[in-house]
Amino acid sequence: MHRRILSIVLASALLGAGGTRCLYLDNSLDPSSLLALVSSKAYIFMDDSAGDATARSLLTYSADGSLQRVNWSGGPQNIRMAAVANNVIYALDNQNIDDVWISRDGGSNWEQTDLPSSNESEQFKQIADCGGKIVVAFATIKYNGSGTHPGYVSSDGGASWQAWQSTFSPMATGTGDIILDSLECNSDLVFITSSNSTAKVEWASTSDLNSWTSASSHPAGNSLYTSTATSGTGLIGLTCDGSCNSPGLNYSTNLGNGMAVSGTMPNSTGYYHATGVTEYANNGIFASPFLVSEANSGSQTCIVYRFATGATAPSSTAKATLSCSDVGSLYSMPAMLAFDSNLLVSYRGSLGTQTGLLLSKDGGVSLEKVDLSSVWTDSGFIADIEDSY
Questions:
Q1: Residue at 3 is within a domain
Q2: What are phi and psi of 356, to 5 degrees?
Q3: 65 domain residue, yes or no
């Protein structure tokens, strides 16, 4: 989940009036007032691989609360992960091909882009919008000349792709590729994690993905990150142990240095899978901008935790809860997006054929359900949510 800094351009209006004009900025304006001047929407991506096998649809949610559905023929069958930059959609489906699907008209039409990889029968596992640059990677990442799985980055809307690799050092003798657990970024920095490396966390400038800085230490025991979120200066990450029996949360206030334990996720022990994701609200509105979701399968409850930095244990921090029993057996909360003054969070049932969408209008303090019945009554679930201005 990746945000761009909001800019408001007023020059054309001033010049159109003719002559010289002075612009007075009122610093007392609430950030939400400024955000209201900008038209934005969230793209909601569907995966129906467990139901009808093909979704070939996405939903959009506008800041005014309106929902729309976009259908297509051809294109990706299901979208399990996506990035949106400058209103162009870049999507990964569940097919074993090293391609990225690109739509330049909001999802109605798609082009299939074959990246310059030799791993034709493998699918990309990571994709992110990093300030307009699209970064993709496989389940493993090249770390030396013997590796065969570089990542790729495009700075020109997908017209060309350049290879990049990590500088991770493996814990044991390797083959040139190392497991890549997570990839997260903002407009300035890209963070990657690997539980099989000595450093666990690395970061690089978005302008040079072949020059990485390794974390100086990683005090936390668990280092297999299933989801990470960054403010640019701090990092939080949901972790799994070997069997994901007891997921936890780690944090750092110094880039990725010294990732320490916040605590165990209170309601995820014994389910053996990641039950939620992380998000950072880069809008200046949320009082606690780091957000973590957790599905409590026992009580069929969706939970969103709020953190200033991630230093507080999940069991002690503020949270919002809401019953999510309408999807049968609640399994996970796989997608979350903070955009404008809203927070959108998805949840799904264990079969992957039922889904729901939650909305918070107060920075995650309270949750309400979004009625999807006017646009979605099919099987499947919301796998990802991304935004675009």
A1: no
A2: -150, 165
A3: yes
210-226 average pLDDT score = 97
CATH number for the domain harbouring residue 298: 2.120.10.30
**Model confidence band, residue 228 (pLDDT cutoffs 50, 70, 90):** very high
User: What is the reported pLDDT for 82?
Assistant: 99
For 56, the domain range is: 11-388
- Give pTM, 2 decimals: 0.90
Q: What is the pLDDT of residue 389?
A: 56
If one counts the domains in the chain, the total is 1
Identity of the residue numbered 243: S
> Is 76 part of any domain?
yes
